[in-house]
Amino acid sequence: MITKRIIPCLDVRDGRVVKGVNFENLGDVASPVELAEFYTNAGADELVFYDITASAEGRGIFTGILRETARRVFIPLTVGGGINTLLDFERVLSAGADKVSINSGAIRDPSLARAASRRYGSQCVVLSVDVKRVNGVFRVFARGGRDDTGLEALSWISSQVQAGAGEVVVNSIDTDGVKGGFDLELLERVCDLVDVPVIASGGAGKSEDFVTLFSQVPKVSAGLAASIFHFGEVKISDLKDTLKQENIPVRIVK
Q1: Single pTM value for the model
Q2: Residue 251, domain member (yes or no)
């Protein structure tokens, strides 16, 4: 049985990890380099590094910080933020990323996933989608949740997976930072739609939220969270022990 992955997320702004609620009111947390090293030793299965203002500011990702972070990490590292071209893929992969996350760049150029998967393989291309309900419809938002693109989220995700995205991170803006649990309705819809790994993001507040996620939406491959890990509210080792007790397969690091 395939193990479920636990993935801490580092949202980086101006070289520091930050965290907010519903993508707003971002507060300083820590150094991404130090936090990445901590999670590597704490039993995380993978790590996600987002330069959350790169797209909004129209610049590339800070590769200096990324290189130093990658040197400290011995688990798969996914990197996103300001990824608009194959040159951006090359830049972050050469800086130490294992996978590259596309979001606003894919919205601007829907052919990016196909081009990147052909050059680097679909396993390297991660589609990250920021989703919010608008009048009962799942809509795609861009620029860190700032702009409503008008795209319907499920059809957008399906088209990008068909184009070559090998993994999907579903970020629910409605549940982000609220700590009331993952957006199970949205995640179930996405999992029924695509045949690539789906990562749940937004809403985790306690270990039981991961139990509920994997129990009620068993097709989900991984749970991603930020603040509950950053502030020590949930320890990854304790979370995995809880999941194992609930007969949910996880990788245990001794």
Answers
A1: 0.90
A2: no
